[in-house]
Amino acid sequence: MPDAPSPPEIGPPVFDAAFRARLGDLFAWRRDVRRFRADPVDEASLRACLALAALAPSVGNSQPWRFVRVSDPARRDAVTNDFERCNAQARDGYADERRALYASLKLAGLREAPVHLAVFCDGATEAGHGLGRATMPEMLRYSAVAAVHAFWLAARAHGLGVGWVSILEPARIARLLDVPEAWDLVAYLCVGHPQEEHADPELVRHGWQARTPDAARLHER
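Given the sequence above, the corresponding structure tokens read:
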């Protein structure tokens, strides 16, 4: 009886120059979006982006990210109100021309975005058994941030825009969303179809902060 054929060898995919160029486009066109169309987000696309986000690296394979979709209108309004309060306080921390420039910026699309996602880090997770966290416990939060970035790139590839809203009081948002006490807010994301597309970041375009010329500089020691 002849031997059974050997299973084909499965190796890693080959990423050619054309793919690398397109990947560069993806990174370059990943923008912080604040202006959204009212069109609903396709549920399958959203789920696909979340599945890709779950491939992000995490310390000890702990996967501590917790994505919460905020759909309740009252809770969304409460989050928006918290942003407006915190934004006013932040604006008042500047003076003169910088304060006027800050006031002119659109810093969130909370009222327009069809999808709100709050991303938490589960500080009580037992997954990973603490590996890699004894000396750097903050790695758990960094892992959740990696998932946010992965989601952001995936969303861009699916034609969706993402805006990261950081002008919020984390503990208040956690209370508003009634999440477990051990969950710490890492990001509050607005998701939807962008109203407009720009190759440059909005804060560059409106004169708040230019790109740092040597941001990719490699320091040697």
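The longest helix spans residues 73-92. Try to locate this feature in the token string yourself.
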